[in-house]
Amino acid sequence: MENKTVNILMVDDRVENLLALEAVLTSPDYRLVSATSGEEALRYVLKMDFAVILLDVQMPGIDGFETAQLIRAREKSKEIPIIFITALSQTKEHVSNGYQVGAIDYLFKPFPPLVLKSKVAEFVNIFKAKRQIHEQNKLINKSNAELKAAYTRLQKSEALSRAITETSIDSLFTVAEDGTIQSVNPASYQMFGYSKEEFLQMELQAILPLFGTSSLESVKQGTILESTAKRHDGSEFPIDLQITSIRVDKDKFFIISIRDITERKYQYIQLERLVQQRTEELLISNQKLQKEIEEKNKMMRTVRESKQVYKSLFQYHPDAVYSFDLEGNYISLNQGLTQLTGRGSDELLNRHFIDLIDGKDRDKTMEYFRLAVSGEPQNYEIDICHKEGHIVHVNVTNIPIIVDNQVIGVYGIAKDISLQNKLWQELAESEDKYRQLVEESPEAIIVQQLDSQICSFINKTGLNLLGIENSDAILGKSLESFVHPSEYNVLLEKMEALKEGLEATSFDSKFVTQHQDVVDVQVKCIPFVYRGVPSIHIVVRDITELKQSREFIKQSEKLTVVGELAAGIAHEIRNPLTSLRGFTQLLEFQMDTNVEYVPIMISEIDRINTIVSELLLLAKPNQVDFQQIEILHIIENIITLMKAQANLHGVDIELQRQEIQYYYIYGLENKLKQVFINLLKNAIEAMPNGGNIVIRLEQLNSQIKISIIDQGGGIPTEFLDKVGQPFFTTKDTGTGLGMMVCQSIIDSHQGTMCIHSELGKGTTVEIVFGGC
Ligand code: ADP
Ligand code: MG
Fold this sequence. Notes:
The chain is an alpha+beta fold. Helices cover 46% and strands 25% of the residues.
């Protein structure tokens, strides 16, 4: 007990009494507290703990009894012994009253000091003893609580260690000093294949062959060792081993924890393998890197080389190569430019290019340059002035020099294209000529693709031959519809033969025009490549005329025979005519003759005679040589010959001539007659409803002009060219040969023939001979 003094409360309303009490009780063991009223006493009781209270009964305010009652009512102070000190009465009621309210003792004034002193001392002793018991109680309670807490902790840690032991995946053994196994956890059964009972009869060495008891001692506590353990079946496996020794009382035990590290070892091996693999990979990638570096070095070398190459390329390039700054001043240039311009590099470097450009091209060149500076490459043609004064036509390419997305200048290449242009022109011309040749070829030329068999080209003659106006009707299509069905297979066979490399031959075939006319043709197929496509060049020649002329020759041979026959017949007719005329003349002098008839008969006989002699003349073989011929005479004869036919058609023939006596020309009589017969025949045929034909004979200087003028239907302009072509006829029974024969005869007489015709009015054929 640290504070040995005890508190004693003295309550009296009279201070002298308090002083007296104090004088009696003064002691180093006591702290005396005085209160002069019940209220004050109560206040002290609330604040302090007292060993005893000396209480005056009679006091103003709360008296002693009431004060004692209040003190007793309070739990904390109800045990404090109270001694009433009173001077009042010693009556029984009074005293019992005092005891009722809790007095322990009574003292009556005047009291002997010693009694008071010893009474108080007694109460103080009781108080002290009580206080000591209280303190001890407190101590006992405290150690009880501590014990309880320790016990709870112990229980907890025991449960925990049991849980750890039971659930541990490691094997845990308790082993005695002699090596026998004392306890074992469930994990061990599985790890080693022994039952609990078997374990408890075994020594540790059975499962840890490397460890004897002595070596357990030598193992450092708590460290983990790697070792090998042995299962029931004799197999061994790697383990982690931890040994802790404990002492229980005097006995020493070892707690041994064993962990199966097979898996970990495996993982480790795997890891090692992985590391090795990774290392190899790293090695490979390292090699790759090495290779890349080598390649990069190689590339750098190549770049250096190409830089060198570029430099030489720049310097020795045959074209002019140069660069400009953004204003257009030369910064670098090669020999090409000095040659092109005729100026030295000192005359060009740092100068503006515009001075070189021909005046007319300056504006547009500046514009091109501006565009190149704005980032767009340019290509254009201009004229530049050579130092020696002549103009050079060049093709220029300007390329912006772009560094970090910014144009810092312009590269240029200029090429002299004067010669090139000339060559191009010549090439174009020769191509033109060739094209014209093909286009204008008198033979039809069709190009057909070998595989697809569609036509890719046709010339004008081809279009005419096939009667097509527009080449679209055949280009891109097959030729099949234009070949006679009976001939198409032959054409295909020939093409197949070409494909197989056989030689091209020409063959006769038949084509069909757009208007379904059949044309006799000769075809030749030649293989060649047209616009990159293997094709066949088909040359087609119209042989209709050839065939017809062959026919004509045959015909004229027949005519010659007929003519010879006619000559004989005419001769035979002339003889009897001669006697007929003679006798008719004689008849004139006969008496009974109707004299008017005789001249008629004679003139008619003369007429027959003339016609027959003409026939004879015509039929005569062509052996007579050229001689002087009086043309008027011939014309008069012909008129006589044709008159009968003219009359038949209601046509009159009139001869108009100047008063010149003779019109001589040099020629063949019967040929010239044939000309006039043919012309008169045409004129008569042109006037089916009758009309007039005028034959006009004129002398112009030394020339003789004969015009045959009819009033027929005329010739349509589109036919004018064709008249005179063999076999051109508009008549159902016509031969189309008459005009051709005329033309050829006139030609052989060095004459000319021309036709003027007006539709609906008539035709005039004019023949002019040179005369002689
Ligand atoms: P053919 O008389 O057998 O038809 P030609 O060569 O004599 O052959 O004449 C050719 C064509 O010229 C005639 O079919 C006709 O259309 C035209 N022709 C020739 N002369 C005349 C003419 N005087 N008047 C009108 N047409 C003519
Ligand atoms: Mg005719």
